[in-house]
Amino acid sequence: MSRSDEIVFYTNPMSRGRIARWMLEEIGQPYRTVVLDYGTTMKAPDYLAINPMGKVPAITHRGVTVTECAAVCAWLADAFPAAGLAPALDEPARGPYLRWMFFGAGPLEAAVTAKSLGLLAPADKARTAGYGSFDQVVDALETVVSDAGPWLLGDRFSALDVYLGSQIGWGLQFKSLPERDAFKAYAGRLFQRPAAIRAREVDDALIAAASPGG
Q1: Which of 19, 65, 80, 169 has the fewest CB within 10 Å, making it most exposed?
Q2: 61 and 109 share a domain?
Q3: pTM of the predicted model, to two decimals?
Q4: Is residue 120 located within the same domain as residue 145?
Q5: How far apart are CA 58 and CA 69, in angstroms?
Q6: What is the pLDDT of residues 83-110, one digit of tens each?
Q7: pLDDT in tens, 23-61
Q8: In 17-48, which positions are buried (b, 16+ CB within 10 angstroms) versus exposed (e)?
Q9: Are residues 75 and 141 in the same domain?
Q10: Residue 76 maps to which CATH number?
Q11: Same domain, yes or no, for 130 and 165?
């Protein structure tokens, strides 16, 4: 791999960077990891020049910087088409792929965060919130998971499963999503993928090494 084609991955093992690492493991390409700490290196001038938000994950690849987890997943899927993780532009599945990827980055993320902070829009103001209501978002999510099988695009695993599936998995783990049968069955299949296991092992090892006595 040439220097210009090198993937540099900026992350912290206790962050959404875990999703991006899983995506990197799925594409099967070498990458270099830069681990950043909250409040120090993540806010340092060198990294703020990469992401002014001072947040992870981010990647640099082919002279381009990509931040925001959904965008990282989408970029990698398109940059490495041989991995088969994104429908091509002329495939009908490209529509649902983009639709639900942006649903995860938009309404789902906003609704789950608002609920966890006790800041959901009141019923009489729901139309002003992009997500409408929390129940609407969860019901829509259950629909796409229930109608799919075994993956969100049917028989084809994609970056959509990495991104939206990670949100479902975290929602179940941290009780920010209800434990509906469709979510549990899907997550049970999803996190047994070899790339998901590898990614978890790498990040869990980084956490253990950073712990006292690690």
Answers
A1: 65
A2: no
A3: 0.95
A4: yes
A5: 8
A6: 999 999 999 999 999 999 999 999 999 9
A7: 999 999 999 999 999 999 999 999 999 999 999 999 999
A8: bbbbbbbbbbbebebebbbbeeeeebeeeebe
A9: no
A10: 3.40.30.10
A11: yes
